[in-house]
């Protein structure tokens, strides 16, 4: 039975009521749509007028997220060049690929804190809502070494809010098709040197509608997508102290609770297994502390300390009734993971023409898993990283950013269970390490125009799942996996011409020791085979990005973006999955009478492979969305629109059809 979620609803509605009452007595409501404040302690790459950009860095602010109603992190990142929205259909996880590399190569951070799932390095981006977000920062290519380990393809940093005024709040209530309801609210208060920030959100969907053009299959009869429910709720709180502009200390708490169904495979490949999966629990809880202490006018120390826990459960059923678990393929599985860690960053400009920064990171990941009828197993890894980065000002126009990190992984515990004998033993454990140097050259033609060239050797250490998983009896573990290595080359330009902002890049990644599944003999049965992860992959990824935004008049602005991504698997004939060659994004926003706004946006994706043998492939698709918003009074706004307005029948992964045309309506407010 699905759990009740009344607590977060009550909290959110209470905050909404508080905001409404405050608005009723406010003498001068703030109707500004700009960000209410950015938690700058959570930013890893600080850019201002005195610093050059660190590689290819894209940012999306709160105003853009709300304009396009990008309510979860996957949809938000899809706004950026170089990003391809993806889905792991069998697990119903929303994810992305950045220049052809997936989330385990481009890890997720929250205010500079790593929050990806400890066991496999992935995150279900659909579970992370953006209602409390001020900015999302995506670093590609030569991502700063200050992030720490595993940034082989870049890093995603979600930066939350910080208040700037004695009282500020924003929120909204929305409805959409599929019996979908959304409620969120944020509040903040700055009183002298102290501030508090908090919020809550609740999203519930019973189902989503398929396109009218969808053809029925054995597991999907159309109309309402089978087993497509979800519930996400989150609360967050922060207290901070900022006695001076250079000194700040903040403690943050976040709790997420979610549950979801996995819609069954609805394609025409007879080799695909139809899974009847539900996730009655997908919970995360985070405690973290950020600080910055100024040391004179030219130096500082930053600290980040965190504890993050992740608990989930996955139930596999016999059929579409989701009631019985008799078949051998049915099971109940529980994960209980946590991580504890921290980092210390020091920076100084005492040396003439040098901005020198150093960082030390530590992270301990613990994973415990329990399958029904088997004993609980425990796994534990320690990660360390030391990094040094220097921004060297050669002239007023030329800069060099040089950096290096040394990362290593110490396997502390890995238990193995033999179901035939009932004996628990220990896997052999091996420690691994890797050196990551990088350099970038930047030329500033003006204060707003920069060209750059970067070269970076980046890596990813193998996860617990990579090394130790039997994958439900189909795989042979490989505890001795080496790190994956990529050499990333990036040539780019960022500039502003009158009312036009232009960003472009050409990229190339040479990936070695890529972890791929290889067929090997079964050591217990010479007549059969198993799969095993091995460092056998050599892959080339390459492409180009162009992103343009323009303000044509005071009432009209728009943008156009294009990404080309190509690949070459030099190891074997297997296809690289989930990488569309072409992505085009376009949008326009028009304001009438200063109160009525109209937003139209469209995305085009080329087809992509969904299986490495090439038997499963999606078709190209284009979807368009339209939204109108009207400013009411005292900061309130009414929104209504249609997503996928032409009811396109499309798939991001073959066999998992996406939502058809869907109407939504929201009421939002900001003070």
Blueprint (SSEs and pairs):
Elements: H1 6-25, E1 56-61, H2 62-67, H3 73-77, E2 83-88, E3 93-98, E4 108-110, E5 113-114, E6 133-140, E7 154-160, E8 168-176, E9 180-191, E10 194-205, E11 230-244, E12 247-262, E13 277-295, E14 299-316, E15 331-348, E16 354-371, E17 377-393, E18 398-418, E19 423-426, E20 432-444, E21 450-460, H4 464-468, E22 484-497, E23 500-522, E24 525-551, E25 556-569, E26 582-592, E27 596-605, E28 621-631, E29 636-643, E30 651-653, E31 656-657, E32 662-670
Parallel strand pairs: 4-7
Antiparallel strand pairs: 1-6, 2-3, 4-5, 6-7, 8-9, 8-32, 9-10, 10-11, 11-12, 12-13, 13-14, 14-15, 15-16, 16-17, 17-18, 18-19, 18-20, 20-21, 21-22, 22-23, 23-24, 24-25, 25-26, 26-27, 27-28, 28-29, 29-32, 30-31
Protein model, in words:
It is a single chain. This protein has about 675 residues and is mostly beta strands. The protein has one domain: Maltoporin, Chain A, CATH 2.40.170. The protein has a 22-stranded antiparallel barrel. Strands 1-6-7-4-5 form a 5-stranded mixed beta sheet. A two-stranded antiparallel ribbon has the order 2-3. Strand 13 and strand 14 form a beta hairpin. The longest helix has 20 residues. The protein starts with 5 loop residues before the first helix and ends with a strand. The N terminus is likely disordered.
